[in-house]
Amino acid sequence: MPNLEVESKKPATKVVYMQYSSQTCHLNTSRMMLPEKFVAPFLALVCLFISSGNLQAQACTFYVSNKCPFPIWPAAAPNQGHPVIANGGFYLPPGKTRKFQAPGDWTGRIWARTGCNFDSTNHKPACETGDCDGKLECNGAIGLPPATLVEFTLQVDKKKPNFYDVSLVDGYNLPVHVWTKSSDTKCHIRGCSKDLKATCPTELQVLNSQGEVVACKSACLAFNLDSFCCRNAYGSPEKCKPSVYSQMFKDACPSYFSYAFDTPPPLASCAANEYVITFCPERWGIGHMSD
């Protein structure tokens, strides 16, 4: 409920203040032909309208585009304390784009699932890659690795840059390109020059029931060694160096995080409120997304 306070400065002047969704509204009611009992509900509506407009202005819009020649099931999982967006996941046919919004201070990850079957008789997992408890809508659940992750840290103040990256720390399932309508190159994260599924070493491969390579594990995921996972004695950039596997990822996808302490950090920053996330851009897709 809004917090309401009535302050009488003069007998003929009454100013009503209301706090709603971190917005302060005030209204001089001395010239209003409105019974006092209706002032609070009226101001609540006014303040809600103002607050909603401000929140909408602060929101960030995502356009997720599928340029793969097969369907995908994009998913989003928030960091702790942030809301679920886009219901946590949805179906996206080839050549289609889905628009959704996130609060201006949202942080979390977006990825694409592949090879999904959400038939009611299906048992978990429902997807060949990126599965989240066998559900279409992940509702905050993190996808099962390996999967290419797009990670965002948004700022409410749009004069300040947002931070985002594409990570292969948990492995790879699809190439992705992140861009804004800005011409500033620091706002863009390019796709890969090679399809890692085609070059993935046998020991990192994830196969589906037909024996096809559908994803490529990171060395950390495949071997669970401190030296690959950059933990314990290897928990610093000085101790955890690139491996032959992370270097393979870096050669194919130079704009992505290839391992935890990738240097220099391939982190993009841009003060924007619209982002286009394209799965299977350019050579692996079925065309380019128009502006």
Automatic annotation (TrEMBL):
<feature type="disulfide bond">
    <location>
        <begin position="116"/>
        <end position="127"/>
    </location>
</feature>
<feature type="disulfide bond">
    <location>
        <begin position="187"/>
        <end position="270"/>
    </location>
</feature>
<dbReference type="Pfam" id="PF00314">
    <property type="entry name" value="Thaumatin"/>
</dbReference>
<protein>
    <submittedName>
        <fullName>Thaumatin-like protein</fullName>
    </submittedName>
</protein>
<comment type="similarity">
    <text>Belongs to the thaumatin family.</text>
</comment>
<feature type="disulfide bond">
    <location>
        <begin position="220"/>
        <end position="229"/>
    </location>
</feature>
<feature type="disulfide bond">
    <location>
        <begin position="192"/>
        <end position="253"/>
    </location>
</feature>
<dbReference type="InterPro" id="IPR037176">
    <property type="entry name" value="Osmotin/thaumatin-like_sf"/>
</dbReference>
<feature type="disulfide bond">
    <location>
        <begin position="132"/>
        <end position="138"/>
    </location>
</feature>
<feature type="disulfide bond">
    <location>
        <begin position="230"/>
        <end position="240"/>
    </location>
</feature>
<feature type="disulfide bond">
    <location>
        <begin position="68"/>
        <end position="280"/>
    </location>
</feature>
<keyword id="KW-1015">Disulfide bond</keyword>
<feature type="disulfide bond">
    <location>
        <begin position="200"/>
        <end position="216"/>
    </location>
</feature>
<dbReference type="InterPro" id="IPR001938">
    <property type="entry name" value="Thaumatin"/>
</dbReference>
